[in-house]
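To whoever picks this up:

The parser on our side crashed when reading a file containing two proteins. I've narrowed it down to the boundary between the first structure block and the second sequence. Both blocks are reproduced below exactly, byte for byte. First block:
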Amino acid sequence: MKALFTSKNNKALSATIQVSGSKSESNRLLILQSQFPNLKTENLSESDDTMVLQKALLSKQGEVDIHHAGTAMRFLTAYFATQPDASVVLTGSERMQQRPIKILVDALKNLGAEIKYLKTNGYPPIAISGKKITKNSVSIAGNVSSQYISALLLIAPSLPNGLTITITGKLTSAPYLRMTVALLQKIGVSCILSENTIYVKPVAEIENKAVLIESDWSSASYFYSMVALSEAASITLKGYFKNSLQGDSILATIYETLGVTTRFNEKDASITLTKNNAPIADHVLLNLADAPDIAQTIAVTCFGLGLGCKLTGLHTLKIKETDRLLALQTELRKLGAKITVTDDSLEMATSEAKNSNKNILIQTYNDHRMAMAFAPLALKVPIEIDDAGVVSKSFPTFWEDIQKTGINVDFE
């Protein structure tokens, strides 16, 4: 299915939209809920990834296919390894079988877990025979993916002796790790983060607890981009808190410099984004090591505004649903951008967005964020998005919601 942007109205973009719960928070809480059934959640993510994880948690025998869901792969590896009644083959899509899992598997094996590779050493699919884990300390590298550490943290309170995790090397995506720690603390688990060490005490059971999941800030990024690229706009997004656990909430600060003002409405837990038309610098320099999931959105926004940019701290994008840096380079060059990428950065020269190549078909590479990051460019130049349905991975109502703002989208 292709998305074709046929036109936009000449009025200011305007809408009130309910964004579903954070995928990151939802997936962490689902793993915890499987260990502590009296934990309840509200505003659970509607994303494919969360649905896949929910389904996987219902099975502890046979093959478990998580398709493209990277978070599910990491979290379930640790979860099944510590369930004595589990005997599963954990697998995924072709791309998932190219995404490394060795650092986490090594850490789990050091704790006594029984995990075997079925094809390529260090990559899924993996066979897991769950067992009781009594060791209570492990060391793990922090410079590849914080999800490996979060996976260990999420099973730590149910281990009979708790867990002490020592992180070696520089930690990447630190806000996601802090999110995991905060959620553990919220449900009553003693979890202490001290420099490069995390201490988690064992918990037999927790008190009855209901957690309201904040709406997803990564999903909000596409509306920030739309407002930045518009001539005038006021869009309200529901379900957001000023004191967020999500690292991507840095969007409010970043986009203030790109012409978007964020007003927090604490009474109804919403944010209102408005175009402020303040002067914008012609070059953007950002280190996104703590918020890599918004890099695609920001790069496309900069291109649409004709700004140069240098985005660093992006090494994790090489092992996502696709090599996101290479994908950005390929698709932005189609539109006329002068862009270069390295293993951990992206640099783009200033340009005239109004002179961009038109009616370009943007490939999405099975990556939901490619589709959604490029969609706001329809405000500047006619484009088409291939495989538009890929957005269901994290934001199933995306196309419906952007049409509410006044952008017309057809499908073929």
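<<boundary where parser fails>>
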Amino acid sequence: MKKTLSIVIPTFNEEKNIAHLVNELDRIMSLTEYDYEYLFVNDGSKDDTMAALKTVAWSNPKVYYIELSRNFGKDYALKAGMDMAKGDAVITMDADLQHPPQLLPLMLKYWEDGYDVVYTYREESNPHAGSFQKMASKMFYKFINRLSDLTLENGISDFRLMDRKVVNEIQKITEYEIFFRGMTKWVGFLQMGIPYTPAARHTGEASYSFSKLLKLAVGSIMAFSVKPLYIATGLGLFFSVASLLYVPYILISYFCGFDAISGWASIIATVAFFGGLQLLVLGIIGSYLGKIFIQTKNRPNYIVRSTNMVQKHDIVKL
């Protein structure tokens, strides 16, 4: 009996990439010995992505779509696709063709060799990334590796293959602000990393801005580590001890009759510095409390507006 593969593809404003991606995947997958399906998750696109998906799904029985009620974010779109995937293995990839479909046979080979997770990471010599993008990427992964309990390769991507037993464990996770690149590492199992050179985007532009990347970095660290709280505690302890060093100066000045020279500038600077430090520490603590507050609401990670999965499976049964 053939093994089955579910290829999960989150989409956001990718109307011009859908048909081309399906053609490329069909060309590669037709050379393999697997049954397969494509699960496109439309994450609140503002263009005609949904219309493009319906058109392709009408002509290709292997194409399924899941339309979310709004834009929940890429990781939640991935979660939606993985929750509905039925394959013996699940492959996740982007819709812009920067993740080369030509790499799928190698990923499948490692899976057949016994690896439970086969993930990819970008090579340093990425010809399609600018200097700022490369620097920001290095800073992101260095930052998260230092402050979290995970070790992620620079440029690790959402192009990966996961065995069914890994997917079953991830399906149980319902936490707030999922970070799949870290979550896949966290679950463990036998993993293999493959370097790759991203292709140029077929059409469109990257949707991640600097502010989104910064938010992603902070959220990812807090999702896997409490080290920022330890750092805040250490800062408070350090400055508390440092302030005690001022006591001998006060005593000596008092008993020896030295006149202390008052300076408004130094006083204001000191007050502003420690005030800012306190706000920073409170902000870190507040962020963790905020995550706990949102998590206790137990809201769903995503809401599905429409899908053709039920209809197509019903047709197959008939």
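After patching the parser it read the second block fine. Residues 184 and 286 are 27 Å apart (CA to CA). The radius of gyration is 25 Å.
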